[in-house]
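Running low. Got one?
___
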Amino acid sequence: EVRLAESGGGDVRPGGSLRLSCSTTGLILDDYGIGWFRQAPGKEREEVSCISRNYDFVHYADSVKGRFTISSDNAKNMVYLQMNSLKPDDTAVYYCAAARRHCHLYDYEFDYWGQGTQVTVSS
């Protein structure tokens, strides 16, 4: 059974940093694209970043380029999202998701989801 579990969310001041972790079980990371999505209150869920090790592919939304970094550790079955220079607009529930073979643009193309972790950026 495939399971994803996020951790590392919390409250942080503008300009601060957080590292989110996505623990995966039941899958081989090289066989999946792993994406980070977020959903703010009243807004649609959006993809923040995605990594596909098998295709040596990494993608970032324009809104987080230069501030967020996605990485993976196959030995630990973990995917991380390092978030720096956080802004109030980054406040959302963050989800990790897995798609067979490769990253995709749309959330409906991902097969497995975690429960989400709240990130709140506020002074």
Remarks:
- The first strand starts at residue 3 and ends at 7.
